[in-house]
Amino acid sequence: MPLVETIKRVTRSGLQSFVRNGWLSTATISVMALTIFVMTSLLLLNVITQSLIFNLQDRIDISVYFKQGTPEDEIAKVRRDVEQLTEVKSVQYVTPDEALAVFKERHKDNPLLLESLAELGENPLEATLNIKARETDQFASIAGFLEREMYKPLIDKVNYSQNAEVIGRLSSIIGGIRRSGAILSFVLAAVAVLVAFNTIRLAIYTARDEIGVMRLVGASNWFIRGPFLVAGVLYGIIAALTTTAVLLPVVGAVSPKISGFLLTGTNLFAYFKQNFWVILGLELAVGIALGALSSYIAVRRYLKV
Predict the structure, then answer these.
(1) Is 180:117 a contact under the CB 8 Å cutoff?
(2) Is 192 exposed, middle or buried (0-12, 13-18, 19+ CB in 10 A)?
């Protein structure tokens, strides 16, 4: 029998096996779809959390306040020293006059405060270096560098932003969520394989008479086993397509709410559309792998030819 014709018959038999066990096929697809849904949700969650952390990281810094009267050249030297640190992303120098202008703009609706400032007759604000770190866990190292003895005559105080601690805790929470999600995905994948395995096992049992006839007429191992492997792959493909069909409107609905709540500017729906084929490909790969693996195990164990 030509190879193409054999493939057609095996595929047709696989479809028949799939339809014959309708309820079991539906249950298998549902569990697989849930597994793929969780895995894809973890991918999208990673996009959101990375955007959130990056957005918050960009807002926090270490503020170094210099004592009144500190010469500009001394401040410039400290700035050069800090810029040479590998942990430092950027350094911004704010003069006392610039700090005063920002202060007045920020409190322009508070005339009492501005009057009190005017009565001082001088600028009470200090020259400042605003330092951004490359990673949130590097702020402590930078702050420690600035607390060296050589800088104490120049620096009034170092304000180590408490936001960095918040970022650190947030990163830990997100890491915990990712680990929990990975464990959940693994458990669901195991359940999906088990359910598909039992579905194929029952399909083999249901078709035992047909299998006996095929053995008698000398059908090849591939011809007998192929339909069950095809059915397993079909479970995975339909589960992946179902997941995508569900995720598309869900992501479209929640994307504006996520952007508004987190204020990150991340358009999750736009990301999903831009990476649609990549995401669909990953879902199909996972679905086919789960279906093929479970079918292969069941066929190897229960179908002796």
Answers:
(1) no
(2) buried
Delineate the domains of the chain, giving CATH numbers in brackets: 3-56+167-302 (no CATH), 61-160 (3.30.70.3040)
Contact 91, 82 (CB under 8 A): yes
The model's pTM is 0.65
Amino acid type, 45: L
Question: pLDDT of 164-191, one tens digit each?
Answer: 666 667 667 777 777 887 888 788 778 8
Strand partners, 130: 63, 92
Alpha-carbon distance 93 to 99, whole Å?
Answer: 10
Nearest to 178 by CA among 34, 49, 36: 49
Residue with token string 């066929």: 299
Q: How far apart are CA 259 and CA 24, in angstroms?
A: 40
Q: And the tokens for 2?
A: 């030509």
Q: How many CB atoms lie within 10 A of CB 105?
A: 8
What is the identity of the amino acid at 149?
Answer: E
Is 73 in contact with 154 (CB distance < 8 Å)? no
Share of residues in the chain with pLDDT > 70 (%): 75
End-to-end Cα distance, the chain: 19
Q: Is 163 exposed, middle or buried (0-12, 13-18, 19+ CB in 10 A)?
A: middle
DSSP states of 96-126: HHHHHHHHHHHTTT-HHHHHHHHHH-S----
Cβ–Cβ < 8 Å for 48, 191: no
**Nearest in space to 290 (alpha carbons), one of 252, 238, 233, 248:** 233
Q: How far is it, in rounded angstroms, from Cα 195 to Cα 286?
A: 16
Q: What average pLDDT does this structure show over 253-278?
A: 78
For residues 134 and 167, the answer to whether their CB atoms sit within 8 Å is: no
Is the pLDDT higher at 265 or at 124?
Answer: 124
